[in-house]
Each structure stands twice: as C-alpha cells, then as structure tokens.
Write a structure and sequence with these properties.
There is one protein chain. The protein contains six helices and two strands. By secondary structure, the protein is mainly alpha-helical. The protein has one domain: Arc Repressor Mutant, subunit A (Orthogonal Bundle), CATH 1.10.10.10. It has a two-stranded antiparallel ribbon with strand order 1-2. A hairpin with a 5-residue loop joins strand 1 and strand 2. The longest helix is centred in the last third of the chain and has 17 residues, at 108-124.
C-alpha cells in the first residue's frame, strides 16, 4: 500500500487551515489548537514548509505564518515534496537510487512512467481544491501525458472517417 507519512498528512491539514483563513497571520499555537495537532509537531512542520518557500514567517508580536502564494497555485505535490522529499514510488525512480537490480531491470522505465503519472495527478490538486471537497466532482483532475507519448489512432477496416 502506498501511504504518505503522518507529518505530511498534518502538513496538508495545516496548509488547508491557513489557506481557509488566507488573510490572517497564524501563530504556531493558533494552528495547533485549530487542527488539534501537538504544538511541537506543528512547529516542526511549519519550519519545513517555510524552508521550502510554501509559507512566509514573521517574528514578533504581530508575526506569524501566511501562505507564500495563492491557494489555487500551491499543489499537494509541492507540500508532499517539501515534507517527504521527491515523490518516488520505487527506489529506481528516486534521485538517490541504490537499487541492486537497476542495471538489468526490465521495468524501470515503466516505473518512471507510473511515478510521473502519480506526481502529475498530485500536482493537479491545488490547496484551494482541498478547501472545497464537494466541488471536486465539478472540477475533475485531468492528467494529460506528454504529446510524444500519445498513441496514434488508426482507422480499422470498416470504420468510417467522419
């Protein structure tokens, strides 16, 4: 089973909360209370998200955290990558691959294609989409493979060209 870590799940919940209250600055304490995640965990995740440029932080009495961009432009893939590192379903598609089978693996290119499809699907889901799950049915997530991999359609005998 493919599963992201608990910190990543918390990170997406926290980013969704901040996005839902886009015009406010949020303290770690306020976020911890709102999403019911322990304060040390919230601080750890906020630091990671800030270091990856997804959040802006300001110190001081009037400080706090705000999104570094529009919720409609920040993708779930960006949040996952910030917390867990590059999305890699198998060892061979990881940038730091140490797979013993890599030199003679017949399915490595297929794993790369699958990994890319998963990444692009997650990249299509924006933080703004996470705020309105009931609207997801009206805005489908579309994945379009690169044009060079699109299969040519040929007419079979008996088919009509319209």
């Amino acid at each position: 089973m493919l599963r992201m870590g608990k910190l990543t799940d918390y990170g997406i919940v926290m980013m969704s909360y901040i996005a839902a209250h886009y015009t406010q600055r949020h303290s770690a304490h306020m976020i911890s209370k709102a999403v019911q995640v322990p304060l040390p965990t919230v601080r750890k995740i906020l630091k990671v998200l800030s270091n990856h440029g997804l959040l802006l932080s300001e110190r001081g009495a009037q400080g706090g955290y705000v999104l570094n961009g529009d919720p409609a432009t920040i993708s779930v893939a960006q949040i996952i990558t910030a917390i867990e590192g590059p999305i890699a379903l198998t060892e061979c598609v990881s940038s730091a691959s140490q797979c013993d089978q890599e030199t003679h693996c017949a399915v490595q290119t297929n794993w790369t294609q699958i990994n890319n499809a998963v990444f692009h699907a997650l990249d299509e889901v924006k933080l703004a989409d996470m705020l309105t799950p009931k609207l997801m049915a009206t805005r489908p997530i579309n994945f379009h493979p690169p044009a060079h991999r699109a299969k040519a359609v040929t007419l079979q005998e008996g088919d009509q060209n319209e």
